[in-house]
Amino acid sequence: MSTKTQANCTVENIYQLDGRVPLSKAIPFGLQHVLAMFVANIAPIIIVAGAAGLDEAQKAMLIQNAMFVAGIGTLVQLYPLWKIGARLPIVMGVSFTFVTILCYVAATYGVPAMIGAALVGGLIEGTLGMFAKYWRRFVAPIVSACVVTSIGFSLLSVGASSFGGGSGNPAFGSAQNILLGSITLISCLLFNIFAKSFWKQLSVLFGLAVGYITAAFMGMVNFSTITQASFISVPRFLPFIPEFNISAILAVTVIFLVSATETIGDISAMTVTGLGRDVTEKEIRGGLGCDGYMSSFSALFGCLPITSFSQNVGLIAMTKVVNRFTIMTGAACMILAGLFPPIGAIFATLPDAVLGGCTIMMFGSIVVSGVQMITRCGFNQRNTTIVALSIGIGIGFTQVPGIFSILPTMAREVLQSNCVAIVFIVALVLNLVLPKNMEVEKPEKNILESV
Question: Which of 197, 164, 185 has the alpha carbon at shortest distance from 14?
Fold first, then answer.
């Protein structure tokens, strides 16, 4: 390494989009991003695989593939291939957005049809992303702000569920899980308060380490899966031969459109909170292209669609660490986890309560980011109406899913558990139909009366 390169290689570059960071300093920050999303990356695989009736060996294979695909997708977002990729510190992972619809498709039409639908839907989203400049204007900043805010609200229950021990855990809400989540959260806070300089930004990693060690002493970590995993294994290509069912493709493509709005929201929130500026059209185009085409790539490995991870947007909002080289080391860790099953097995033993203790504040940060975006748009009468109705209907209706009972089964499955989709639809429609000027004009005072 030349003297000039060494001089430019500094840990302070973690706050810059470009620039080199010493590898020994970059890896902890990159690893922090992996740990923040690891369980959330594999959880959708486990849920959908269970609904599809896959066995344990197939689940393990898909988890391994999911880490490999997420790492490749993240690399493409960081360092674009042609026009595919945003050139931003966006971390990719298996999306929760698709869980409900893919469970339905897998159970109704079979896993091959689910893979075929994800393959086609990804190609459609990626292609639409390449032409984002023609339709991007319809997704106004206030619409993106509403979507970001709803993403944060929708993730709060995920963080709370993890804090209690994980959904479906027989010991959910037990004293052990609450204690473990609290220890992890307090560790994050204390480290953030007392750490100096750039070390302060490693509070999430510190909390995860303290929580994991505590969980091990409490007997809450199962190490058997680590010893049972083979040392090295190449991700399996085309574990399921795709089938193309038109009903499955239409249903999944609708959710790809919803996912695209989430991606726009995530990228917008990341540039605002991490880079202090608005997102560009080129970044939207590249980010959506990567989301779509890499989801099709993911389908070839039998995995669910991948998208930008809101968890990591929240982490960037907290730490302001945006350096691409640093995040790249995290992507490399994910690829290694896909090639060396024991690495993934170690991450997979992380108890949900530990993850919940770290993520609950991160998800809250996304809500704050959304509010900041709304503030930047301004609280005029028009924007206030869009925000109030979209958030009110989106979050309110999903709290009482019976309100969707008159809809067809497919539409009901899509809407009743996806507040982000409803918020986007309502905000988009309102933005198109509401008058541009809704301010109430104050009547001018009669000059004679004032005299």
Answer: 197
Give the orientation angle of helix 23-52 with respect to helix 56-78, to 10 degrees. 140
> From CA 184, how far away is CA 213, in angstroms rounded?
10
CA-nearest of 288, 289, 256, 304 to 66 is 304
Model confidence pLDDT, tens digit, residues 101-128: 788 888 888 999 999 999 999 999 999 9
Q: Which residue did the predictor score with more confidence, 83 or 364?
A: 83
Distances (CA, A) of 314 to 183, 286, 363, 401: 21, 21, 6, 28
Residues 6+ positions from 249 with CB-CB distance below 8 Å? 116, 117, 120, 121
pTM over 0.90: no
Q: What is the pLDDT of residue 2?
A: 47
Which residue do the tokens 């339905």 mark? 104
DSSP letter at 32 equals H
Task: Band the pLDDT of 4: cuts 50, 70, 90.
Answer: very low
Q: Cα separation of 183 and 128, whole Å? A: 45
Q: Please give the full DSSP string across 236-273, using - where no structure is assigned.
A: PS-SS-----HHHHHHHHHHHHHHHHHHHHHHHHHIII
